[in-house]
Amino acid sequence: MSIRHGLLALLERGPSHGYQLRAEFDAATGETWPLNVGQVYTTLDRLARDGLVAQDGDPDSDGRIAYRITDEGRRELTSWFTSPVTRHGAPRDELAIKLALAVSTPGVDVVSVVQTQRAATMTSLQELTRLKTRADGDPGDLAWSLVLDHLLFRAEAEIRWLDHCETRVARAAARRGETPLTPAPAPAVAEAVPAGKRGRR
Amino acid sequence: MSSPVLLLSGVTREHRQGSSVVHALCGIDLAVHAGELVAVMGPSGSGKSTLLHIAGGLDTPTAGQVLVEDRDLATLSAAAGAAVRRRSVGYVFQDLNLLPSLSAVENVALPRELDGVRSRLARREAVKALEEVGVADLAHRFPDEMSGGQQQRVAIARALVGPRRLLLADEPTGALDSATGEEVLRVLRGRCEAGAAGVLVTHEARHAAWADRVVFLRDGVVVDQSGPIAGAESLLSTGGAA
After folding, report:
1. Is residue A200 part of a domain?
2. Is A91 an interface residue toward B (CB < 8 Å)?
3. Do A173 and A105 share a structural domain?
4. Looking at the domain assignment, is residue A120 inside a domain?
5. Is the pLDDT of residue B230 over 70?
6. Which residues of A touch B206 (CB under 8 A)?
């Protein structure tokens, strides 16, 4: 995540100092990706070194230095907003790696791995939905509400993918002629599985 | 804690196809309390609609028990069963089934009039139900003069009119766009918070997330559950019960 561009965007609203920038960043993103104030000041130093921001007047009575965006900073900000975000390669995703290893490691109950994860992701989707209900009550909070939507859609996509994995794993097990890996519910279900589904291998 | 509005214990539903037996549901236990919305998720054929039909007395289990407000549906006469379905249970289905020749308020009042409630009282109750779901201003419109979302709200009002405390919804957001679908869920959620017990069948995680608890069905079996989220209130009530 580009803290540089985030700070430039906030400074476009007007001059500000580090603590204030951190608070504004957290307010816009609902503290989803909290910044520490050290990061903010280090980034401001680099931005000043590169001529994208400049000190705005003398330090205030508390010794805090305010910064303003420069014309060059404004150009950099515009180019950020007008170019797409590129994600280099697939970021390492622990869940995808865990499932890939679960299907290839003997003795792992993959379906149960999937179900445990799905229940957890569902719980966080429920929490996000609650937060969203509250955020929607406040029409002024569009920024935070959109960040929440992002998290909601991502959780939803993860659940869809997990559903898909569950089906694929069950189907693969059926093809191998194994009993499906669903946690043995009642014996009656096993009897209900048509015998014709036995594998050919 | 008071007894649940809906209680399924060991509910099994088999269909016979020639010599083989297909289990649509297998040993389902589910309790839904007043004030609670439970979502049932699962792929098609997982038994979620069967579960809803059995909960509402529209289908009968081959084994197990269904209690609606402490009454065992299996022990009731046909007439008494029909009365429970009419008075205690409200249904919202994907196809709204509003009667096109009746206005919104007449549609909502109809089940109460069938219950023998005097028509002026039934109408008053209907207006109140429409108010609750935020469409009181549409009372005199006919279904074809309303948007899909508005019709669905009227259908929810009809499901809730009068003293009914169990709300059963099968993909109630089916044909609606996502913003309208969300409004419908908000209304459902609000009704449950106001004291109804709700069961919502859906295959969309985003919709299920409005529930307090999500039950995952697969091949007629509950494979896992999420929630309830431990909020301050639920922690308090657990503490009180202990």
Report:
1. no
2. no
3. yes
4. yes
5. no
6. 125, 129, 152, 156
In chain A, the number of structural domains is: 2
In this structure, are A59 and A132 located in the same domain? no
pLDDT at B240: 36
Kindly identify which residue of chain B lies nearest to residue A124, measuring between CA atoms: B209
Contact across the interface for A123 and B227, Cβ inside 8 Å: yes
User: Residue B55 and residue B38: Cα distance in Å, rounded?
Assistant: 13
Answer positive or negative: Cα dihedral of B72, B4, B162, B179. negative
Say whether residue B9 is in contact with chain A using an 8 A CB cutoff.
Answer: no
Please check whether residue B192 touches A, CB under 8 A: no
In a domain, A189, yes or no: no
Q: Which CATH class is domain B1-88+165-242?
A: alpha beta
Cis peptide before B228 (omega within 30 of 0): yes
Instruction: Dig out the tokens for A31 from the structure.
Output: 């503290």
Residue B12's nearest CA partner among A36, A131, A73, A192 is A192
- Domain extent listing, chain B: 1-88+165-242, 95-164
- pLDDT at A190 (0 to 100): 36
Across chain B, mean pLDDT equals: 85
- B-proximal residues of A, 18-77, CB under 8 Å: none
Is A69 found in the same domain as A104?
no
- Range name among A34-48, A127-141, A186-200, B81-95 with the lowest pLDDT average: A186-200
Q: Are the Cβ atoms of B227 and A115 closer than 8 angstroms?
A: no
Cross-chain Cβ contact B226/A189 below 8 Å: no
Nearest CB to A186: which of B26, B43, B226? B26
CA B153 to chain A, closest CA, distance in angstroms equals: 18
Please state, rounded to an integer, the average pLDDT across all residues of chain A.
82
- Which is higher by pLDDT, B229 or A36? A36
* Alpha-carbon gap, residue B137 to B157, rounded angstroms: 13
**3-state SS assignment for residue A157:** helix
Do residues A135 and A67 share a domain?
A: no
**Residues β-bridged to residue B25:** B13
Residues A74 and A125 in one domain: no
What is the DSSP-derived secondary structure letter of residue A196? G
Domain co-membership, A60 together with A129: no
Across the interface, do A160 and B224 touch by the CB < 8 Å criterion? no
- Residues spanned by the domain of A16: 3-82
